[in-house]
Amino acid sequence: MATRLLRPLMPAVLAACGLWLAVSPARAGLFDDDEARRAILDLRAKISQNEQLIKQQADQIQSLQNGLLDLGNQNEQLRTDLAKLRGQDEQMLRDMADLQRTMRDLQAGLNDRMRKLEPQPVTVDGKTFTVDPEEKAAFEDAMNSLRGGDFDRATTSLNSLLKRYPSTGYGDSARYWLGNAQYGQRDYKGSLATFKAFLAAAPDHPRAAEAMLAIANCQAELKDTKAAKRTLEDLIKRYPQSEAAHAAKERLVALK
C-alpha cells in the first residue's frame, strides 16, 4: 500500500535528486572561487602591508643614512673649527709672547730713562753727594773740555754749572777747576779771584794746598812778587806735609 502510494512520487524525487546532484558541483566551484579570491585579496593585503613596511623601513634607513651623513659633515666641520681654534690659540700665544717681550723691552727702557732722571750718588775729591743726571753730565763735559785743553769751553761750562746749580755738590771742585781753566786762558786776575773764593769756601778741601800754590803762581804772573812769597810761606805753614808745600819751597828759592 505504501509502495503503491510512493510510486507516483518517485519520478519527482529522482528529478529532485538529479537536480541537487547537478547543482552541488557548481556550488562547490563557487565556494572554491570565493575562497581563492579571498586568499588572493588577503595575500594582496599582506603584500601591500609588507610593501608599506618595506617602504617605511627604507625611509627609516634613508633617514638614518642622512643623519649619519649630517653627523659626518658636522664632525668634519667640528674638526675644521677645532683646527681653526688651535691655529687661533697658537697665534694668540705667539702674540702674547710678542706682547710680553715688548712690555719687557718697554719696561727696561722706562727703567733706564727713570734711572737717568733719578739723582745719582757720585764721589769727587773724597766727597760723596747726590746729583741730577744733567748736573753730572754738565760737570763731566766741562772736565772733558779741560782735559782736552779747550780752556774757553771748560770755563764757560763750569761757570754755567755754578750758575744753574748754585748748591751743587760739585761747587768746590767746580771752582777749583774753573780757576785752572782761567789760568790756562791766561786770565790771571779771574783765576786768582776764583781760587780765593775756593779757599774761603773749602779751606779743608783735599786740593786746598794746590789752590794756594796756584794763587801764588797767579800773583807771580801779575808781577806781585811780595804777595806770591807770602802766599807760598802761608802754604808751607798750613800744609807742611803736602806736595804743594815742597813745590812752594822750590818756588820761593826761584823768587828770591
UniProtKB/TrEMBL annotation:
It is found in: Periplasm. Mediates coordination of peptidoglycan synthesis and outer membrane constriction during cell division. Residues 1-28 form the signal peptide. It comes from Ideonella oryzae. It comes from the Bacteria. Residues 61-102 form a coiled coil. The keyword Cell cycle applies. InterPro entries: BamD-like, CpoB, CpoB_C, TPR-like_helical_dom_sf. This is Cell division coordinator CpoB. Keywords: Cell cycle, Cell division, Coiled coil, Periplasm, Signal.
